[in-house]
Fold:
Amino acid sequence: MLDYSAEAARYDETRGGLPRAQAAADAVRRLVPGGTLLDVACGTGLVSGELARRGLRVLGVDAAPGMARIARGRLDVVLGDACRLPVRDASVAAVSTIWLLHLLPDARPVIAECARVLRPGGVYVTTVDKRASHGPGGRPSPSDASGLVIAEASRHGLRQDTESTFIGHGQGGPAPDPIYRLLSFTRL
Structure:
């Protein structure tokens, strides 16, 4: 797996930079009505910072010290494990996991943890089927397959509400830019 602390200094420039972050933030913001958003695996905070500019109070969590160090220049951030979030039960209005689940061998513990920290009526937003978004022949990672995410979220009291898409500017290489898919869930 990629060493995200070592990659932090060049992460934004190699992942579509501000245009991709703005597209992601616009799509997430359409699904999150307001309040405090816990951005799990916030990385450098580029997307999180854009969400804050769109009216959300954002707290970032990332496990990579290098990523958190850069993110601190953009928002409040803490070091933390996505499977043991440093947040009380039922304490936040919204949680996001953007471009995280596909990296995990098993996303179920992270989905359960996101459900734990959401207050009733809160919203969980996540990207799904990331590899499939990169065009023909792309197959979803088993951990971010939409069917698995929906089933696991349901097991933890989350109801799937809606979905959105956005263009991953600068991520297509020689192929067209990918279209990423977001699902939103409400805590019952």
User: Anything to note?
Assistant: The radius of gyration is 15 Å.
